[in-house]
Write a structure and sequence with these properties.
- With 314 residues, the chain is mostly helical.
- The protein contains eleven helices and three strands, in the order H-E-H-H-E-H-H-H-E-H-H-H-H-H.
- A three-stranded mixed beta sheet has the order 2-1-3.
- The N terminus is likely disordered.
Length: 314
């Protein structure tokens, strides 16, 4: 039996390298990232809970935002626990099956989040630019179909490259120069012919990012034009404030993913990729609850109502 066959038969065990240059700060980084992770999960869970508990928030926008928050909780939980273990204990072993599973869940949820961002922008476009048609088009059935379509599309697009990844041979180094099992670092460890899977991964990244980005830009461009025609300066200021905060999150998400997945192969820098991945997996999930929901006056009122009900029950 040759080396490739042995590697294919005995599924390899990988080692996640993490951040060896700052491992001496492991306990500090562990504490910081643990607090950020807990804050992110708590914020997103709060959004989900209050959206379903308060009937005033049971609108299409908050349905999409609660779905977005659920995906963000799953997304961060796929990555952060292993990152915390790396900060605390150094390099971490991960089995082949666990690595492939983590890669698939990460890519599936990531793709779904980008499609859902496009849906959120379409929802805002309909609400602001087509208010008369909005209640009819964005009915509960349509909202459920749109979220389901994002999930199905994300799942379908990611099954193929991860399946091809699982069929590659790994006969060299088993150290993944990252803090989780991402597609690119795993492909680079393979001793198989990787040209086809590299082209597929690049094509899928281009399709997902460009499609969601174009939909988002067109939607917000129309929103800005509509806002400029609003008669009240106060209304214009409020609308621009909301849009600008949304653009902060969009810039972080698209910027970090373009930096990681859309660079030419020759310019790949592992340390900078890991930094961009931290922004995508730690920073934006922490900012999203604050920017998209917790700044909203309706949410503030719903929180006050919830606290009042709790006090009355005591």
């Amino acid at each position: 039996m040759n080396g490739d066959a042995r590697n294919r038969t005995a599924a390899p065990e990988f080692m996640l390298e993490g951040f060896p240059a700052v491992q001496h700060l492991g306990k500090v980084l562990f504490s910081v990232h643990l607090l950020m992770y807990l804050a992110s999960v708590a914020g997103n869970t709060l959004i989900i809970t209050i959206t379903w508990a308060d009937h005033h928030l049971q609108t299409p926008m908050y349905f999409f935002l609660s779905s977005f928050s659920f995906l963000e909780c799953c997304f961060t939980t796929t990555i952060i626990p292993k990152l915390l273990a790396i900060f605390l204990l150094g390099r971490q072993k991960i089995s082949f099956a666990a690595c492939i599973t983590q890669a698939f869940v990460f890519l599936f949820l990531g793709a779904t989040v980008f499609f859902l961002m496009a849906v959120l922008s379409l929802d805002r476009y309909m609400a602001i630019c087509k208010p008369l048609y909005y209640p009819t088009i964005m009915n509960p059935r349509m909202c459920s179909l749109l979220v389901s379509a994002c999930l199905v599309l994300g799942f379908s697009l990611m099954v193929v490259p991860v399946t091809k990844l699982s069929q590659l041979s790994f006969c060299g180094s088993r150290v993944i120069p990252h803090f989780f099992c991402d597609l690119g670092p795993l492909i680079n460890l393979s001793c198989s012919d990787i040209r086809s899977i590299e082209m597929l991964a690049f094509g899928l990244a281009l399709f997902i990012l460009s499609t969601s980005f174009i939909i988002t830009i067109i939607s917000y461009s129309n929103i800005v034009v509509t806002i400029l025609h609003l008669p009240s300066a106060k209304e214009r200021q409020k609308a621009f404030s909301t849009c600008s905060s949304h653009f902060i999150v969009l810039s972080l998400m698209y910027g970090s993913c373009v930096f990681i997945y859309m660079k030419p192969k020759g310019t790949n820098q592992l340390d900078s990729n890991k930094g961009a991945a931290l922004v995508n997996t730690v920073v934006t999930p922490l900012l999203n609850p604050v920017i998209y929901t917790l700044r909203n006056k309706q949410v503030h009122q719903a929180l006050r109502n919830a606290l009042t009900r709790v006090r009355l029950q005591k």
